[in-house]
Amino acid sequence: MSVTGHNGNQIVANHKNGNDSGEGSAVTIKPIAITSITAAKSGDITKTYNGDTELNDASKSNIGYTSTQVISGDTVTLGATPAYENKNVGKNKAISFTTPTVSGNDNYTLGTGATVTGGVVGDITVKNCCNFKCIYPSIYKDTEDLVKSISNASAIASGNPTANTVVAADILTGDRDNLTFAYKLTYANSTDANPTVTISDTSVTGTESGNYEFTWPTGLTGTVVADEFTDAAITSPDLMQYTW
Question: pTM score, two decimals?
Answer without folding.
Answer: 0.75
